[in-house]
Design brief:
globular, five-stranded parallel β-sheet, 52% helix, Rossmann fold, two-stranded antiparallel ribbon, binds adenosine-5'-triphosphate, binds magnesium ion
Length: 378
């Protein structure tokens, strides 16, 4: 057990990872059967941690399976994408660094990339591509996973984190067409794409006119349940010789609407503030502390919104059942029903609101709490 039992802001593993048994089993089976999958959730619900964990479990079960990870977080162009793909796939499948030259000769036929060895670490190399060559023959890179897996008699899963970023590429649709056209023929490699920006991911994978329509099995990640969080929090307190009652432990995720990142953050603050026992008073204080830490950020965010958008947020906080009814529009000065729609779409675009099965919800439960307790003081 690490000295500090709660963790947030990074991929969680080991004792900091909790639950997700069903999702792990499902992804593990997709990986070992080379079924491509798409994991979608709002920000910070645990996609990256889940896929890493599932990959470990799958590789333990199936020794022929290798999984490599591409983080598209900073990738903004097609060129960067190919370079990252070539690097990660070759790194994951080249056992010893000195074999890279041999592998490149084996796997490339159209052009030869440049290999640079790290001057500090003799276990590292970097692949450099000539964009003019790649532009003419992108298939050479796109088919690398299949070619390598076939020749090495392995199964290869390529995981693409922050996949929604390909939407920023110039001419994104034709790029997506290229990926799909090549990847759908792969029998020894599969793909797992995941990302936030739900509506963008949904558009890429569920719109009939889009190249990736029905490319793989869609998984919508849920939050972790209050019951599971309660158990986890109690366990983490116990393991570090501090105590919290079940009633208080469940209050932490309840305050954060079971949002994984924030539950860990609030639990962390509660744990720091408790000498031996954690009680309601400590939790309330920690929650205030957390909102205060975020206050400047939330104030700045609110400053970018129009009055009508802010008013719409208030009507949602107050759980108004009919946002476009003339009564609600009048009470909150929302303009007209067309303005309500515009405000709603603008707030979704800004990732402040999201629509889950028809219902509008705040993406960030701390922002909602801050608006409620500090901004509107309702
Ligand atoms: N299974 C889990 N058990 C415990 N905590 C979790 C779990 N999943 C996520 N968390 C908490 O949520 C945080 C965010 O997790 P992670 O980075 O995996 O999410 P993400 O959906 O990939 O986020 P982003 O949208 O920012 O990429 C973690 O740092 C951790 O605090
Ligand atoms: Mg992530």
């Amino acid at each position: 057990m690490p000295r500090i039992p709660f963790k947030y802001g990074q991929i969680v593993k080991g004792s900091n990872f909790t639950n997700r048994k069903k999702e792990i089993a499902l992804l593990r089976d997709h990986f070992t059967s080379l079924t491509s999958s798409i994991v979608i959730s709002p920000r910070r619900w645990g996609k990256s941690s889940l896929v890493k964990r599932a990959a470990e479990v799958a590789m333990r079960k199936d020794k022929k399976l290798k999984v490599c990870f591409l983080d598209l977080y900073k990738v903004r162009t097609e060129e960067e994408f190919y370079e990252l793909l070539a690097n990660e796939v070759l790194k994951a499948t080249t056992g010893r660094v000195f074999e890279i030259g041999k592998n490149i000769k084996k796997f490339f036929s159209q052009f030869i990339p440049k290999v640079t060895f790290s001057p500090v670490k003799d276990t590292e190399f970097t692949i450099g591509l000539n964009w003019q060559e790649v532009k003419k023959k992108p298939d050479e890179i796109l088919n690398l996973p299949e070619k390598i897996a076939q020749q090495q008699k392995i199964k290869l899963v390529v995981c693409l984190d922050e996949f929604q970023n390909i939407g920023f590429f110039k001419d994104s649709i034709s790029f997506q067409k290229k990926l799909r056209a090549n990847w759908q023929n792969h029998n020894h490699a599969a793909y797992c794409m995941y990302g936030s920006k739900r509506h963008m991911m949904l558009e890429v994978f569920t719109k009939q006119s889009m190249p990736f329509y029905q490319f793989g099995s869609l998984i919508f990640l849920d939050k972790i349940s209050n019951k599971d969080w309660t158990r986890y929090i109690m366990k983490q307190f116990q393991a570090t010789n501090k105590k919290i009652s079940p009633e208080d432990a469940q209050y932490i995720p309840a305050l954060m609407e079971n949002h994984p990142y924030y539950v860990q953050q609030l639990a962390h603050l509660c744990w720091l503030n408790s000498e031996e026992f954690c009680d309601r008073k400590i939790i309330t204080k920690a929650h205030d502390q957390l909102l205060m830490q975020l206050s400047l950020l939330f104030q700045n965010l609110t400053d970018t919104l129009s009055n009508k958008q802010v008013n719409l947020l208030l009507s949602i906080i107050n759980d108004e059942p009919e946002l476009s009814s003339s009564q609600t529009i009048k009470r909150y000065s929302l303009g007209t029903s067309a303005t309500v729609n515009r405000s709603k779409n603008a707030l979704i675009d800004k990732e402040i609101l999201d629509q889950f099965s028809g219902k509008l919800e705040f993406v960030d439960p701390a922002y909602k709490a801050w608006l409620k307790q500090h901004y509107f003081k309702v």
